[in-house]
Amino acid sequence: MNLIRERDFVSSIADALQYISYYHSPDFLHALHDAWQREPSPAARDAIAQILVNSRMCAEGRRPLCQDTGIVTAFIKVGMQVAWDTDQSLQTMVDEGVRRAWQHPDNVLRASIVSDPAGKRKNTLDNTPAVVHVELVPGDTVEVFIAAKGGGSENKAQLAMLEPSDDIAQWVLDTVPKMGAGWCPPGVLGIGIGGTAEKAMLLAKQSLMAPINIQELKTRGAKNRAEELRLELYEKVNRLGIGAQGLGGLTTVLDVKVLEYPTHATSLPVALIPNCAATRHAHFTLDGSGAAHLPLPKLEDWPRIALDTSTPMRRVNLDQLTREEIAQWQPGEKLLLSGKLLTGRDAAHRRLAEMAARGEPLPVDLTNHLIYYVGPVDPVRDEVVGPAGPTTATRMDRYTDFMLGHTGLLGMIGKAERGAATTDSIHRHRSVYLIAVGGAAYLVSRAIKAAKVVAFADLGMEAIYEFEVADMPVTVAVDTQGRSVHQSGPAEWRGKIAAIPVFSE
Fold first, then answer.
1. Helix 42-61 and helix 26-38: axis angle, to 10°?
2. Cys bridge to 35: 131, 155, 220, 251, which one at CB 3.0-4.6 A?
3. Could you tell me the domains of the chain?
């Protein structure tokens, strides 16, 4: 019988969460680097390169891969022969580990968890509570699989109660394009099949904890229907041409994972959960000998990628921006932004809309400005701001027509596509929508030279900031004519991929 001490368990949780906040796993790096090497789409190749460069910077600086440092999910297998040296619950100990990880002074993580989710949605300030799943198993050890899952990818989770005769692969292929690019591809798709509705979702989430090994599976061949499904979907999902960041390209998924469980004769529950380009998970076992120690990666594990600077980029002075100037920008064009940039996300947009409806003056003047959809990580040491990558823009669609029609705003910066009504609004107001690369938050933050809160300080990371940026790289996603690269890019690459017999080697 092994004695598991509270201090060892809590410190192992905290250390693992710090570790995955800034270290990509070697299997993910290898798969992403391979995708970059074979990617012919310039836009997708550049996006993957930014993710790889960001990854190395985070490993060196030990700062978060993404500004959304995630909601913590832990799958814990407790051996029946284990004894505990604690009077706390497992949930309480996991939460203490989360709290310590998120408040680490050298690498503060962004608190994103809100209580009263159907009401006031108040931030808990320390990212607790975690979501904990416990299984009692034979043995005398405690095995922990822990992940920090970003909201952009978690929000794309899907569940279907199919008929037993339905085609699972076809449902996935019908569903993935509807998910858009808010989950920050390329990443991994987790699929759970069977059980009940909640079991299928758990299987999908658990499947994402496994290493990327699709190329090994292709080499040895499938041994069962689940493995056949993995290979089929890996090929067919990539043939959709969605590509990195939804810009069109060869690689949409780096792997497809499938876990299954027996189900009722009349049922076929199928769940799909994507993991984003900031894939973060760790696995460790406690046997009573002390806290867990995860292997320290070597910087040689990271490929040395130089960002492509050969393509001319238009330099933009944000402090002198006009509607006439933005009308010259073309879909897919790369820009370098310098000057003052305002930020705002869901909560700030809602407050602005409510204030305007009451006839109150707005706390910031948005005339001739761009607004960046971001909730940055708090700075540490000499940082001006912590990692500050874009959030999913579609959540702001409900406010966009108001913002463009009532504030004098010229455009927006985020990630992923906009809805059809929002694209029409952008066209009607002669505005623009730009994208920064999701999964390159630390790299983006290097372009921010000054930052201050100018409104709604009580909202924490959702406050409105004024950034001073220098050469911040973005891409024109929707121009003033309403033309979208998230429509043209994948359509172009679907056609090109269709002419390739087998492309995902």
1. 150
2. 251
3. 1-149+297-304 (no CATH), 151-277 (3.30.1330), 314-490 (3.20.130.10)
